[in-house]
Specification:
By secondary structure, the protein is of the alpha/beta class. Helices cover 47% and strands 12% of the residues.
């Protein structure tokens, strides 16, 4: 594992980490919209990070690319974990965050946020790990019709996250399905209250529109990145994804299903909504 610098890039950001199937993206996106924050979702950097790992000569990254997609998930869980590039991508996440503008405040989320950075440049008060119970995670696998390979990897990542929580004294919000989005958000907001209050936040409608556009274009890039791999078939344009409404209304929390091509070409707006003036 690469050592975490004593001065961690991106240490001024707020972090929501934890294993897959915990609802991190949903919670982080809602909080970023509410407070006018820049959202960094590590999943949207997946293919960029993989290209950086390949350029650095990463054997696990090379093995991932060399395997036929249908065979990747047949590998043992430990091999899947190695090919997931958790350690390599954690360092890349820190580099990404360090390159971001100082304003507005960045809210970072993802399973690859490096817990080892907490206490080594990242204040514990700026970090929350969403931790799904085993039963909740299994229920999510069923609901998503997740295959055996991904499920095995995600179980292993949950166990690793539990070890990180103990090792680094991370503050957690347990996700067991008994609370809805608003209640979970409230728990996360409470734990991150000092950082959220300190800002800086986007104030103008123009700034908020720009942040919402960034959120949606990050999803576009993620899907395009997948279909741009040599082993991928098909095109990204017709793929339908959920995007945030870009009207920038203070109370708007609507999401819109649209094709990648449409979201790339123009701002995504819910029916009856339009970009607001200052």
């Amino acid at each position: 594992m690469r050592q975490v610098s004593s001065v961690v890039a991106g240490g001024g950001s707020l972090w929501i980490g934890g294993p897959p199937a915990a609802g991190k993206t949903t919670v982080a996106r809602a909080i970023a919209r509410r407070y006018g924050l820049r959202l960094y979702s590590a999943d949207t950097r997946t293919w960029e990070h993989r290209d950086r790992a390949l350029a650095a000569g990463s054997r696990p990254a090379e093995r991932f690319e060399s395997l036929e997609p249908s065979r990747r998930w047949e590998q043992p869980a430990n091999a899947l974990l190695e090919m997931a590039l958790q350690t390599e991508r954690g360092s890349m996440v820190l580099e990404d965050l360090g390159a971001m503008p100082p304003s507005p405040l960045v809210l970072a989320e993802g399973s690859t946020l490096p817990a080892a950075a907490v206490g080594a440049g990242v204040e514990a008060s700026r970090v929350v790990w969403l931790m799904p119970t085993e039963a909740f995670q299994e229920a999510q696998f069923t609901a998503r019709r997740l295959g055996d390979g991904p499920a095995a990897l995600y179980r292993l990542l949950r166990r690793r996250a539990e070890a990180d929580v103990r090792a680094f004294g991370l503050r957690t919000v347990t996700v067991d399905g008994s609370r809805g989005l608003l209640e979970t958000m409230a728990s996360v907001e409470h734990l991150l209250s000092a950082g959220l209050a300190g800002g800086p936040h986007a104030v103008t409608l123009g700034d908020r529109r720009q942040l919402l556009r960034e959120m949606n274009l990050a999803v576009v890039v993620q899907v395009q990145g997948y279909y741009g791999r040599p082993w991928a078939s098909g095109t990204a344009d017709g793929v339908r994804q959920v995007f945030v409404c870009e009207c920038a209304g203070a109370e708007c929390d609507l999401e819109v299903e649209a094709t990648v091509a449409d979201a790339a070409a123009a701002p995504v707006l819910a029916a009856g909504h339009e970009a607001r003036d200052e």
